[in-house]
Design brief:
By secondary structure, this protein is of the alpha/beta class. It is built from eight helices and six strands. The chain has a six-stranded parallel beta sheet with strand order 3-2-4-1-5-6, sandwiched between helices.
Length: about 200
């Protein structure tokens, strides 16, 4: 299973979520992280703590790297560039599922909708032989506020797929690259688990 994290909005938790998902899956599945972002955000990760190997490829051959990793690992999580570029599009085309992180704000929602439009263009292009990648918006850094509730309502009315699971604003997520996955039973661990399980259900549907 190949999962990409994509957003053109900086600070939405894209790289952090990629690390947390990979760390979660690595507990039961052979998992790899691929940093396809020229900013190399995943360079701060400590593989010996996460128990997840981190690969880097921002070249034109990123599709070949993805295919190779998919043949060696059960889960491949890709952190794409935080802006639209040809290599990011190629990574999305090779994905089984694309998560679009979105903070609960009107500005972030606008950027998320642009990412959705790009994925619709990819689907319309028909470049994949099997099927186009599935995708959904996932709220990150979410809190129980009126704004968060409004953004979820806006997504529902728009018809854009969005995850029921959401990711809160927690220190444990920021610490994951350096100290490892949040402790079992913690709220942070539960949120990632719920997201991963929902993602798996959507792929099976």
């Amino acid at each position: 299973m190949i999962v990409s994290l994509y957003s053109t909005k900086g600070g939405c938790g894209k790289s952090t979520l990629a690390v947390c998902l990979a760390a979660y899956w690595s507990q039961t599945k052979k998992t790899a992280l691929l940093d396809a972002d020229p900013q190399a955000s995943l360079s701060v990760c400590r593989p010996e703590v996460l128990h997840v190997p981190v690969f880097e490829d921002t070249s034109r051959d990123v599709g070949k790297t993805i295919a190779r990793l998919a043949g060696e690992y059960e889960r491949v999580v890709i952190d794409t560039a935080g802006y639209q570029r040809r290599k990011s599009i190629e990574a999305l085309e090779h994905s089984d599922f694309v998560l679009i992180p979105c903070k609960p704000s009107p500005f972030d929602l606008r950027e998320a909708m642009q990412a959705v439009e790009l994925l619709r263009e990819i689907a319309g292009g028909g470049k994949r032989k099997d099927s186009h990648p599935r995708y959904a918006v996932v709220l990150t850094m979410a809190q129980r506020t009126a704004v968060s509730a409004q953004i979820r309502e806006d997504l529902q009315h728009s018809g854009v797929p969005f995850m029921s699971a959401q990711i809160g604003q927690r220190v444990a997520f920021v610490e994951t690259p350096s100290i490892g996955f949040p402790p079992p039973g913690s709220v942070a661990a539960l949120e990632i688990e719920l997201l991963a399980k929902e993602l798996r259900r959507r792929l099976r549907a």
